Amino acid sequence: MRPILKSNKLDDVCYEIRGPALEKSKQMEEEGHKIIKLNIGNLAVFGFDPPDEIVQDMILNMHGAAGYTDSKGMFAPRKAVMHYTQSKHISGVTIEDIYLGNGASELIVMAMNGLLNNGDEVLVPAPDYPLWTAAVSLSGGNPVHYICDEQAGWFPDIDDMRRKITSNTKAIVVINPNNPTGALYPREILLEIIELARQHQLIILADEIYDKVLYDGEQHDSIAALADDVLFITLNGLSKNYRSCGYRAGWMVVSGEKRHAKDYIDGLNMLASMRLCANAPGQFAIQTALGGYQSINDLVGPGGRLLRQRDMAHKLLTDIPGVTCVKPKAALYMFPRLDPVMYPIADDQQFAYDLLAEEKVLVVQGTGFNWIAPDHFRLVFLPNSDDLTDACGRIARFLDGYRRRHGRG
């Protein structure tokens, strides 16, 4: 029979966070092995529970969650998002500028589907959260990766960004706080990005899903709060700040220069209507989450579990010979560098696969985040202290063996 092939729109789409190594880990688990999974920021499986009041409000409102909602979402949670944008000093946002989605991920794809024609270009950071690159490609566009500079704390290289803008460029993606590096961008960098968008009439798409997961007293500036003459699409949700990944409750806010974007906004409205609505139970969690006690502050502040585990993971990793890592200021991840002289890695996907097979530790290779060289990997620092110590010890043992096998011991 004639083979049934996947769409060629998927040829340039990849999502290595759930790639071949994960499939191998599932096989190993079925064979009875215990895998330490450091590949995904799924907080619940590591004992980070959502606030009780969110859970209770969802339960109490479940009887009203069976019907479709407005295609953009229920009024009360959108109102809560509107108030949140005001607290972030984003001006001019109305209820109609807010779209609720099945997580920010659905809205990322929606924003790209509504914007791009074949051949349009979008500037995406390298490294990036790979859904952004995938969404651009799936929408017929060409992702163009601008470099974030590790030597400068993983801040975007503005000159590299400027060089890569062409007549086909439609938008700039800004992931701040950044996944996978944990970088938090200062206002000066954000203003430079805005100036580029202003000069070239580009849209800024801002992924701010980790805007409360901040360490060492750091503060987050929402880029959409810094100008009103550029069109901003800001995305956020409950997954990380409120440990509610499975609730799939996210939002997208359109702000700034909206007068010349009417046709694009009509497209977003059309796409929102086509999916009927976001899931209603998740919508019921939003108002309570945004208006309630912000327990994330206890986790990231002095003595907090996330802060302790960040510090522990950073020390354990950087104590390994040939491993360096910019200490994250935000988010849930480390993106350590392996000295290419000590670790001559040609294929980092194979490297991650071998680490899994030998030490039963699952990480994601750096090129899975569209990084330019096979010399990084990403891990989450969510496991409890004992498991995190065990995992980093296994990584150290694997790297010691790798050095010896390659004559670098």
Automatic annotation (TrEMBL):
GO terms for molecular function: transaminase activity. The keyword Thylakoid does not apply. Its cofactor is pyridoxal 5'-phosphate. It is an enzyme of class 2 (transferase). Its EC number is 2.6.1.2. Residues 34-395 form the Aminotransferase class I/classII large domain. The keyword Transcription does not apply. Signal peptide: none annotated. Keywords: Aminotransferase, Pyridoxal phosphate, Transferase. Belongs to the class-I pyridoxal-phosphate-dependent aminotransferase family. This is alanine transaminase. It comes from Massilia frigida.
